[in-house]
Amino acid sequence: MRLALFVAIWMVATSAAATDNVLLIQMQPDGHYKVWHTEGESHVSDDEVMALEVTARPEGGEEMQTGAGPARAYETSDGVTISLLAATNDKALLLDRDDCGHVRIWHAAGATNLSEDQITDIVMSALPEGGKRIIVGKYYVKAFITKLGVTASLWNAPVK
């Protein structure tokens, strides 16, 4: 019985730690980084995202009501960014399409918070086919150079 309870607790802890395990890192004109997260507190449905994407303009498309409150889509050099007007932390979403046309949503705020030095280490390790696995804080990291920036996959490093 104790073993079953331990396994159940371990599985919940592992799945919670797996949240927000991929980051998109973009270099900004001022030399700092913008970090996008795979998970965030703002929830907008795929249908809402696609409806907003169609309205995107450089000056901002029409305001639409979503599950995360009012939102407006902007056409940028990186693609489409959705501004979530009522959000407190996760105020923007970046839309990315893979080679098959599937929409991937990146969140402006997430659970993984790294220092500027740690992010620099990740960016410096990135290669198009994936850089060497490195340890950053409590994470193993493998970084890839992509069209939007550096994508970093993070997973928990074993405690020594």
Fold and architecture overview:
Mean pLDDT is 87; it is low at 1-18. The longest helix has 17 residues, at 2-18. The protein has a domain at 40-109. It contains 3 helices and 10 strands; from the N terminus they run αββαβββββαβββ. A hairpin with a 2-residue loop joins β3 and β4. The radius of gyration is 18 Å and the shape is elongated. 22% of the residues are buried. Helix content is 23%, strand content 36%. The two termini are 29 Å apart. The strands form 2 sheets. The protein has a 5-stranded antiparallel beta sheet with strand order 2-1-10-9-8, covered by helices on one side. The chain has 160 residues and is α+β, with helices and mostly antiparallel strands.
Fill in the keyword field for this structure:
single chain; 160 residues; alpha+beta; five-stranded antiparallel sheet; 3 helices; 23% helix; disordered N terminus
Total count of strands: 10
Measure the end-to-end span: 29 Å
Radius of gyration: 18 Å
Which strand-content bin applies to the residues? 35-45%
- Biggest sheet: strands side by side, in what order? 2-1-10-9-8
Structural class: alpha+beta
The proportion of residues forming helix, as a percent range, comes to 10-25%
Mean pLDDT: 87
Helix run count: 3
Secondary-structure element series: HEEHEEEEEHEEE
> What characterizes the major β-sheet?
5 strands, antiparallel
- Poorly predicted tracts of residues: 1-18
Rough outline: elongated
